[in-house]
């Protein structure tokens, strides 16, 4: 029996864990208790670490999810955890050896995760998922999108799926069709034709269910009787944007809606950006149709390029702000100009080598997450913000100090508020 | 005195030649008779050889224009001409040595040029040029566009200029703005903004005076008080297209209108294609704004790339046939996507290496020239066609045989006519 971490954590017994997992996942009666504990620990991590948390990825790679959770619950110190990591095959593969910097990273991780180390939450994820007919997938699952493995330490720990997860087997022949929320009639027309033409060629259309191009891509794929997959930035229990509730229900009915975040999780700017990496990694190629100069689609495009996935871009009138980001991609990157579904389809037969260096981060991720956790009206304590942002209290305090200096946050007796400007846009 | 060829040819005396040349050219009282004979022989060649005739280029490089004309008038045999060519510095630079293939090329050239070896024509060119205030430029002239030298053996022998040839000194800071005759409101708007923005940056706008994008480029440059240069496919005495007569007169008034063909020469499809090489070579960079899938602008773009000139292309809606050629260039070549005058201006500071191999010819040039020389209604003799096409009678007969087989020409008692379809479009 290896349910130590799980049982310690949730005060659950083995039978309880298996019952809850069976309600949502591919864990069957044949699964060992070890399997179940590992899956449950992954579920816990999907609520503990923010998407794309590299240190969490290292920890799980070295210790397994159950081992990692065990170390967290036992409040092992960073040196001890590094020692454990160095003894495993996974840790050896990562080249773990004594390293002061790594100790610091582990230490920062522990502080970041501690505020969320809550057994009730993990159980609630499972209960809520079961209520919404949500299926839990792990990397061991047959339908797990193999492309996500290319994300390495940034890969998601689990996926929560509504609809027909069997369709994920078609992802090796899929194209992500993404673009601006502020689309034009031109962009929508091109998207409609593109998605329909791709469906005609047996291609699964992946997108982010946002307003504008994303929504049109899903709609056109559905209208053509094709397969379509939507990745959300929050839990699959509450659909965002709300105006796409009906559309997302239709995708559930004949396609798949996915998220790496557990049911109940709300979408944040950070999660939108991380969601984009899943779209790029799960698809065999990405096509951007209309994007403003700073569109979130450029982020998806950047992930696709960094992963060595072919990137197609549809041009538009140079007089249209909604195509400015597309033209920027065509000028500044190796993106391929595409004008028809046939040309998009050709992207699937391209063999592109990933670039040597990783994409530059354009924004400090911690600051982004702290800003997401602040409210314009309600003051919040540093502890509350730390829990919401998935960061340590110390990190939050340091970031808040900086944000106060630059005028983006304001502190008072009752806590911290966001300052100035409107609510941050939810970037698709 | 070295006027042998000229005097033999035209039955002119030295004073006559100088007087006629002074009326149209930079040949002044200080020029030697040798200079004058050379210039006059170049004038003759601009009527004898079709634009871009590589063998004529070799002959003039090796023997000088006067020497080459002399050899033609004396009806030297090909071996003798090759021997003469091998003895000069120019010939040595070309690596002329005994070569059966070269003898064949010279022989073919002699047959091609013989039907046009007409002294009255050369004199008529000068007289007609004088009537139209046309200035004659040779490569020795201060305002000769240096970029044309990159054409090597395909360089023009002379340029005939109306307007202000001094403006040609600005060509190192010029951009060719070309595009479809069948332009849209979008393309015209972008062209207007582009040419105005380039003029604001002190750039001379070069184009071909065709309907559509070309005309708009000239108009916008003129409206912004900028310099503009138009290259025509026929003589500068009769403006083509006739609907641009007023525009071309305005270009003459404040810019320059140029042609390598003498006054009186009519534009043919072949000459349009060759004119495009002058636009590309004379300009420091080329920008294509709207082009159909088979637009003549793609020909200009091909010349620019082959010459190592930066090539910018403006995208448009993928739903617009008028942008299909632009998107084709962006997909199939190293052309740079440009959206604003500022980005076009940046092309001037790019350093681009010419590609190793020459551009493929997409059409047999002899066939093109024979088809140009045929009429749909009036039957013409092979001799007449040879003179019009600048080819030998034997070549013409061989091409006509082929064209009859493919149904493009039909022969009869009274001669040859073009068969089927409409008149060939004058490609801009």
Automatic annotation (TrEMBL), chains A, B:
Location of the Smf/DprA SLOG domain: 137-348
GO BP of this protein: DNA-mediated transformation
Classification via InterPro entries: DprA, DprA_WH, DrpA_SLOG, WH-like_DNA-bd_sf
Residues in DprA winged helix domain copies: 354-409
Region described as Disordered: spans on this chain: 409-428
Family the UniProt entry places it in: Belongs to the DprA/Smf family.
Name of the protein this chain belongs to: DNA processing protein
Organism listed in the record: Alpinimonas psychrophila
